[in-house]
Write a structure and sequence with these properties.
The complex is a heterodimer of chains A (394) and B (448). Chain A is mainly α and 394 residues long. In chain A, 64% of the residues lie in helices and 1% in strands. Chain A has helices at 2-12, 25-35, 54-84, 90-123, 130-140, 148-163, 176-187, 189-192, 213-218, 227-232, 244-256, 262-280, 297-302, 306-313, 324-344, 351-393, and one strand at 36-37. Chain A starts with a helix and ends with a helix. Helix content of chain B is 20%, strand content 20%. In chain B, helix 3 (172-183) packs across helix 5 (243-254) and helix 7 (391-399) runs antiparallel to helix 8. The chains are: A mainly alpha (394), B alpha/beta (448). Chains A and B meet through helix 2, strand 1, helix 3 and helix 16 of A and strand 21, helix 9 and helix 10 of B. Strand 1 of chain A pairs antiparallel with strand 21 of chain B.
Chain lengths: 394, 448
C-alpha cells in the first residue's frame, strides 16, 4: 500500500505551502485525510492523544444511520408496489426504493460538500466532517418524491444560511438537516405535505392512499395500521422516519459508542410520553378531545418522525444543550413540544421538526441558566470568604 | 475519615515503560543547567558572569519583578555558558560541575522555634523560594504575599509518573523539616495529600493536615485537591510545593545547605535503563538516558501529559521527576477514521474497543491521531475534569479573552496541567493547556 501514499504525496506537491495551488490545499487535504490519518505529531500540550477524531465520530453516526437507510429503501418500494400489485418481491421493492433514494443522497452530498469545500478554500481552514452526517440526514427526512432541484436548494439554504453564516461547523444555532427540511416545508408546502407525497408516484396512480398516520388522524379518518406496523415502520412517511425499531437499534449503537447523548434521548421519550399521557387523560377530566388527543401515548412515540428526530437530530451536539443538566431539560421539552404541536396544530403534522428547531434556539438559554447556577455558587463562596475575613478582623 | 478526597471523574492511562522501583545514585555529571523558562513569567536578571566560580547555593539570577526570589546554583563549579534564544531571552544557565560539591553554608536552624520572618528569609536567600509556586495563575510565588494555605500533593497519578513515596522514603526527616518550615509561611494550614492506597510512608507527619486521595488521574493534581479542600476565590493566594522540593527546603534547615536533590524516573517505552536515578536538579538528558538511539524518539522532561520536549543535548527541567522517552508518531494510518479499528491506540472513546481491556498497557506515540477541528462533541471534557466548573465554556471564554466570564467560570481554580487530560481526550484536538496558559497570562496582566 506504500505506493498509494507515495503517489498521493507526489500529487500533493503543488498544493504545499508557498506553492502555486496552496489556496486549494483544504480540498486536497480533505481527500487525503479520508484515505490516511495524517502523520502530524503533537507540537504543544500533551504529548500523546486519544485515537478518536471528528471523522471517527461522524462516521460512527453514519454507521448508525445505515440500517435505517437500507430499511427505508425497501419500505419506499414496498409502500408503492403493495398498492399496484398483489405480491411484493423483496428485491423488487428494494430496487424501486433505492432508485428513488440514491439520487437524493448523491445530490445532497454533491451540493453540500461542494459548498463546504468552497467555504474551506475561501476561508483557508480545513474541511470539517460535520456534513458527512448532515448530507445523509437531509434526503432521509424528506418525502420520497421531492424533486431533486428542491432538495438541492434546501441543501444550499441549510449549509449557507443555517451553518456557514454562523461561522461554520460547531457554530450553528440550528440543526442544518432540519433547517433544510424546514426550508423545503415552508417554501414548497405542496411537495412536503398532503396525502400525495409520502408514497412514490402516488399522484400518478389512481387509488393510491398515501396519507401518513398523523395526517389521517388530523383529517379525522380511521387508521388502517396497527401498533406493530407503526413500530416496525411498514407505514408511509418521509424516507427514513418510519421504522421506530431501527431507530431504537441506531439509538443503542449511538449510546453504546457514547456518540449520542442518552440523556437527551431518554428525556425526550419521557417528555413525549408525558404530553401524550396528559392528552389521553383529558376524557377523564370531562374534556372530549379528538382523534389526535385520544391517540394512545405509546403510539405517539412510534409514529411520525419522533423516534428518528430524537435519536439522530436532537442529539446533534452542536445545536443541543452542552451542559449535562441542560441536556435533560432540552430533551424533555423536545418530546413534550413534539406531541403538543402534533395535536394542537394539525396543519403541521410533523411536530418533531418544529420542536427540535425551537429547542435548538433555546438550548443556549438553558445552558446559560445551568452555568449561571455554577457562577452564583462561586460568587457566594467568595462573599462568604470575605465576610469570614471581616469577622475575624473585627 | 472526612479528610478523604474521592475523585470519580478522570482516567487512568496505562502505558508501557514504567520505571523499575530501583534507586540508583547517578554519577556526577560534567554539566548541569538551570533553565529560567521553567519559571513562568519570571524575567531573569543574571548576577554572575560566564567563567565565574560558584558554590552550590550561590545566586545565579533573580526575578526582575519580585527581587526577593533568588535562583541559586544546584551544584558548585564554573558558570560555563548562558544560552540565549530569540530577543536574547535566557534559555539555559549551564554550570560545569566540580568533581565534588562545595556548598555555601547557611547554618542549621529549627524552623519551629525560630521567628517566622527568619524562616522565610532563610528560604529566600538560599534559593528555596524557587520551589514555591502560587495558585491562581500557576506561577512562581511572590514572597510578599501571605498565602491562605500551602498545598503539597505527595502522590502522582499521571501516566508513568514517579512514585512519590518511593523517592521520599529515605528523606522523611528532611520532608518533615520542610513541612515545618512551610507551616511558618502561612497563617492557614499546610495540606499534604497522600495516595489513598499508600503504604503508610507518610503516616507520621506532623504540623500538617493529611488528606487521603482516591481515584484516577488527575486526582494527584494539586489544583484538583485545592478545589476539593479549600477552593481559591478571586483575590486569594495559595502556594504549592512539589514533594521532593519540600525535602530540599527541609535540607536548608537540617544541613544549612541547598542540596537540590532530584530523583528522576527514566521511563517510557523507548528508554533502556528504566530506573529511578538520584541526581541534582538540571541533570543532562544525554547522560541520564544512556546510549539509546534517539532517532524518531520524543524525549520529554516530565510526564507525557504535561512535560516539555527536550533534545538529547539539553537538560532536565527544574521541577519534573520524570524523563520520558516515547516513539514519535510521524506515520500515516490508512483509514484511521474507521471506528473499532487500530485498537492498539488507547482511547477514552467507545468508538475504539480499548475500553474492554482496562488492565492492558499500551505503547503510545506522539501522533495527533487526526487534525484540529471545530469544537463539536460535548460532555467529554467534563468526564476528565473533577472540578465543579464547565471546562468547555471556560476554554471558549479564554479564547475570546472575556475576562469577566473567565473569572465567573473559575479561571482562578485551574492550571494548565488540570487541562492536560482534556488535551488528550478531546475529539477536536484543541490545545486546551495552551489556551488556559494564555488565559491565565491575560488575567495576570489585567487583574494581577
Amino acid at each position: 500500500m506504500e505506493w498509494i501514499r507515495q503517489k498521493l504525496d507526489k500529487f500533493k506537491e503543488p498544493f504545499a505551502k508557498g506553492k502555486k495551488l496552496e489556496k486549494y490545499s483544504p480540498a486536497i487535504n480533505a481527500l487525503d485525510t479520508f484515505l490516511y490519518t495524517p502523520n502530524h505529531t503533537t507540537q504543544k500540550g500533551a504529548h500523546i492523544r486519544d485515537a478518536v477524531d471528528l471523522k471517527r465520530v461522524m462516521i460512527t453516526v453514519v454507521i448508525a444511520l445505515i440500517p435505517v437507510l437500507l430499511f427505508s429503501m425497501w419500505n419506499t418500494g414496498y409502500q408503492y408496489l403493495k398498492q399496484v400489485q398483489p405480491e411484493v418481491d423483496f428485491w423488487d421493492a428494494f430496487g424501486h426504493g433505492a432508485l428513488e433514494i440514491l439520487p437524493m443522497i448523491v445530490v445532497s452530498y454533491a451540493v453540500g460538500l461542494g459548498i463546504e469545500f468552497a467555504f474551506a478554500i475561501f476561508r483557508g481552514h480545513e474541511v470539517n466532517e460535520g456534513y458527512l452526517v448532515t448530507g445523509l440526514l437531509i434526503p432521509m427526512i424528506m418525502p420520497v418524491g421531492l424533486p431533486l432541484w428542491m432538495l438541492a436548494i434546501s441543501v444550499v439554504f441549510a449549509v449557507i444560511i443555517g451553518k456557514e453564516a454562523f461561522g461554520g461547523t460547531g457554530m450553528n444555532i440550528l440543526n442544518p438537516a432540519l433547517t433544510a427540511r424546514a426550508f423545503a416545508f415552508f417554501a414548497y408546502p405542496t411537495y412536503m405535505s398532503g396525502n400525495q407525497v409520502w408514497v412514490m408516484n402516488a399522484a400518478e396512480v389512481d387509488g393510491v392512499s398515501g396519507e401518513t398516520i398523523l395526517g389521517t388522524l388530523a383529517a379525522g379518518q380511521p387508521i388502517e395500521y396497527d401498533s406493530m406496523d407503526m413500530f416496525m415502520g411498514l407505514i408511509p412517511g418521509s424516507v427514513s422516519e418510519t421504522s421506530a425499531v431501527l431507530c431504537l437499534l441506531g439509538a443503542l449503537f449511538l449510546i453504546f459508542t457514547k456518540v449520542g447523548s442518552w440523556r437527551i434521548m431518554l428525556s425526550a421519550v419521557v417528555g413525549a410520553a408525558a404530553m401524550g399521557l396528559i392528552f389521553n387523560a383529558l376524557p377523564m377530566m370531562g374534556v372530549e378531545g379528538n382523534a389526535l388527543t385520544n391517540f394512545p401515548w405509546y403510539n405517539h412515540l412510534i409514529v411520525g418522525g419522533l423516534a428518528f428526530g430524537i435519536v439522530y437530530m436532537a442529539t446533534d451536539p452542536v445545536s443541543a444543550s452542552q451542559t449535562l443538566k441542560g441536556k435533560w431539560i432540552y430533551g424533555f421539552l423536545i418530546g413534550f413540544f413534539s406531541v403538543m404541536i402534533r395535536v394542537f396544530n394539525p396543519a403541521y403534522p410533523e411536530g418533531v421538526m418544529l420542536a427540535i428547531l425551537l429547542m435548538n434556539v433555546f438550548a443556549p438559554t438553558i445552558d446559560h441558566y445551568v452555568i449561571q447556577a455554577n457562577v452564583k455558587r462561586r460568587l457566594k463562596r467568595k462573599n462568604e470568604g470575605i465576610n469570614a475575613q471581616i469577622n475575624t478582623a473585627v | 475519615m472526612s479528610n478523604d478526597i474521592r475523585i470519580n471523574k478522570g482516567m487512568t492511562l496505562r502505558l508501557k515503560g514504567e520505571a523499575e522501583k530501583v534507586l540508583v545514585d547517578a554519577p556526577r555529571f560534567k554539566t548541569y543547567a538551570v533553565k529560567p523558562p521553567d519559571f513562568h513569567a519570571v524575567i531573569p536578571k543574571m548576577v554572575v558572569k560566564e567563567g565565574a566560580k560558584i558554590q552550590a547555593g550561590d545566586e545565579l539570577f533573580f526575578s526582575k519583578y519580585t527581587g526577593e526570589v533568588r535562583f541559586t546554583s544546584p551544584v558548585s563549579g564554573t558558570l560555563k555558558e548562558i544560552k540565549r534564544g530569540e530577543k536574547r531571552r535566557i534559555l539555559e544557565v549551564v554550570i560545569e560541575a566540580d568533581a565534588s560539591d562545595s556548598y555555601r553554608e547557611f547554618g542549621t536552624m529549627d524552623p519551629l522555634s525560630t521567628d517566622a520572618d527568619a524562616v522565610k528569609a532563610r528560604i529566600l536567600e538560599s534559593g528555596g523560594g524557587a520551589f514555591l509556586n502560587q495558585r491562581p495563575y500557576d506561577i512562581p510565588a511572590d514572597p510578599k504575599d501571605t498565602p491562605k494555605a500551602i498545598f503539597v500533593s505527595a502522590l502522582n497519578t499521571a501516566p508513568l509518573s514517579a512514585d512519590v513515596e518511593f523517592i521520599l522514603k529515605d528523606r522523611l526527616d528532611a520532608f518533615q523539616a520542610g513541612l515545618n518550615a512551610l507551616s511558618r509561611l502561612t497563617p492557614g494550614k499546610v495540606h499534604v495529600s497522600v495516595a489513598g492506597k499508600s503504604d503508610g510512608t507518610f503516616n507520621g507527619l506532623q504540623n500538617v493536615e493529611i488528606h487521603k486521595v482516591f481515584g484516577p488521574h488527575p486526582a494527584a493534581n494539586v489544583g484538583v485537591q485545592i478545589h476539593n479542600i479549600d477552593p481559591i476565590n478571586a483575590g486569594e493566594r495559595v502556594w504549592t510545593v512539589k514533594p521532593e522540593d519540600v525535602a530540599n527546603i527541609g535540607d536548608l534547615f537540617l544541613t544549612g545547605r541547598f542540596t537540590a536533590v532530584r530523583t528522576v524516573a527514566v521511563c517510557g517505552s523507548e528508554a533502556k535503563d528504566r530506573k529511578y536515578y538520584r541526581t541534582i536538579i538540571g541533570a543532562p538528558v544525554a547522560e541520564l538516558i544512556g546510549d539509546v538511539s534517539t532517532k524518531d524518539v520524543r524525549i520529554i522532561s516530565g510526564d507525557v501529559l504535561t512535560g516539555t520536549r527536550v533534545n538529547r543535548d539539553q537538560y532536565l527541567g527544574f521541577f519534573p521527576n520524570e524523563l520520558t522517552l516515547i516513539p514519535e508518531g510521524n506515520q500515516y494510518r490508512m483509514f484511521g477514521w474507521l471506528p473499532f479499528t487500530y485498537n492498539n491506540i488507547p482511547s477514552n472513546s467507545r468508538t475504539s474497543l480499548t475500553w474492554m481491556f482496562p488492565k492492558k498497557k499500551y505503547e503510545v506515540n506522539t501522533n495527533l491521531h487526526g487534525e484540529e477541528r471545530a469544537l463539536v462533541v460535548t460532555g467529554e471534557m467534563e468526564e476528565v475534569l473533577p472540578m465543579d466548573l464547565f471546562p468547555m465554556q471556560l476554554l471558549k471564554a479564554c479564547m475570546g479573552a472575556d475576562i469577566e466570564k473567565m473569572e465567573n467560570l473559575g479561571i482562578y481554580e485551574v492550571a494548565p496541567e488540570d487541562f492536560a487530560l482534556i488535551d488528550y481526550v478531546n475529539t477536536s484536538k484543541i490545545e486546551a493547556q495552551e489556551i488556559i496558559r494564555l488565559g491565565l497570562d491575560l488575567m495576570i496582566t489585567e487583574v494581577g
